[in-house]
Specification:
Blueprint: H1 7-22, E1 27-28, E2 32-34, E3 43-51, E4 53-61, H2 63-74, H3 83-106, E5 111-113, E6 117-120, E7 125-127, E8 133-140, E9 143-153, E10 167-169
Antiparallel strand pairs: 1-8, 2-8, 3-4, 3-5, 3-6, 4-9, 7-10, 8-9
Length: 175
């Protein structure tokens, strides 16, 4: 079952990071629960959390939103999602997640995050297995960043048994 109490640190962190890095104001969209495993946007950034909280954080955005954000952050125009633009988008997800973990730490949750993974293309299947996702769109003047949280507290006594629920399949089949 999804734990909604972990949502606010991520929404607050995204608002803080986007304001500091690109001078954007973030408005939270309507919260939902999701079981679907298909990506709906061009770019997906995925990070795993382990420790007192475990699971996966997913950021989805259009290629245009990603290019606009990276162009402003790096101070140069990007017209295609090249290696530097990809790195910039992935790092933005990493910074937001890092800031959220600082907020969670101040609430008594000790945890670590993985390096970000960037996935390009709509229709990639990312299953969070038995973790429902709390989904919140973050609305900005540069586009929507949709945050998916498939997180839960680590059960007492299982500190060394972190479990990150993820399975990724491409929608492309080889003939």
């Amino acid at each position: 079952m999804a734990n909604v109490k972990f949502m606010n640190p991520f929404v607050d962190a995204a608002a803080e990071v986007l304001q500091a890095e690109v001078q954007l104001t973030v408005k939270r969209g309507e919260l939902s629960l999701q079981k679907s495993s298909m990506t709906l946007n061009d770019i997906t950034v995925l990070l795993s959390l382990v420790g007192a909280v475990q699971g996966v954080v997913i950021y989805e955005l259009s290629a245009q939103t990603g290019l606009s954000l990276v162009s402003r952050i790096l101070g140069q125009e990007f017209k295609e999602m090249n290696a530097l633009a990809q790195s910039g988008v992935a790092e933005l997800g990493n910074v937001i997640t890092g800031r959220a973990t600082v907020k969670l730490s101040s609430e008594g949750y000790s945890l670590d995050i993985s390096p970000p993974t960037l996935i390009q293309g709509k229709g990639v299947q990312i299953s969070t297995l038995d973790f429902s996702r709390v989904v919140v769109p973050l609305l900005t003047d540069m586009g929507v960043i949709t945050v998916h949280l498939a997180l839960r507290e680590t059960p007492p006594g299982s500190k060394d048994q972190s479990y990150v629920p993820i399975s990724i399949k491409s929608g492309v089949r080889k003939s």
